[in-house]
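Protein modeling request. Please complete all fields; requests missing the sequence field cannot be processed.
Requester role: graduate student
Desired output: 3D structure, token encoding
Chains: 1
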Amino acid sequence: MIDLHCHSTFSDGTYTPGELVVMARDAGLTALALTDHDSTGGVADFVSANEEYNDDALTCVPGIEISSDVPKGTLHMLGYYVDHTDAGLEEQLLPIRDGREYRNKQILGKINELGCELTWDEVLGFAGDDVVGRPHFAMAMIEKGFVKNKQQAFDQYLAKGKPAYADRFRLLPEKSVAMIKSAGGVSVLAHPYTLDLGKAALRNYVGELSEMGLDGIEIHYPMHADYLRKQYLSLAAEFNLLITGGSDFHGDVNPAIRLGRGFGSLDVADELLDKLKERAGV
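Delivered output (282 residues):
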């Protein structure tokens, strides 16, 4: 069993790369990919923590999840086996990360305007050493009693189109694919349900992405119902795309999601990693 989608304290997760390695081994995973948002900063720690065991029980896959710009919904592009030391990749990621800081200040201002008096220090208290993201704002809003849970925070205030949402700089999808490829990686469309497209529109869009050089599509995912997995499997077959899957584990931000198991039933087959490695030339 493998997990090709998780986050550490180098983006918006609550566990360090080394802690994720320990958790993956304890869970009996045979492979884990670190796919932090717009950053490969944790990859070196991730790989070295696993090498200390001096065995082949767990394969650590270097990865990234790049935020991409689309008119509707949300598009994230996963990159696997990217060279985390690639200076060109890091240079192109910097504007995305800088945009996150500017966006966070906008979100804080909007939340205060809505009547929830939050300070930056209060939000940071939930982020710790993490990169601050919307889940941390949600946790601070819960602490203040402004909302009851994270779902309400996003549904009423923080989700795209809601009153406390603020946009930030993102790359066009074709640029994200090109960046991943130039760093020696394999590009995979993450959780396609977040594109919020109908069946026909999604088919057309995935076709366009495949022409841009897209390598795969994330099919096995906690929020993907059976009918969605069947739909995405059909797209993978039609456009000759690799199949991947993962829990999108963030740790304490969403405790219902377990590493490797999602909500409990996720089971991503080892053989998918073999095909991914083959495409990457590993």
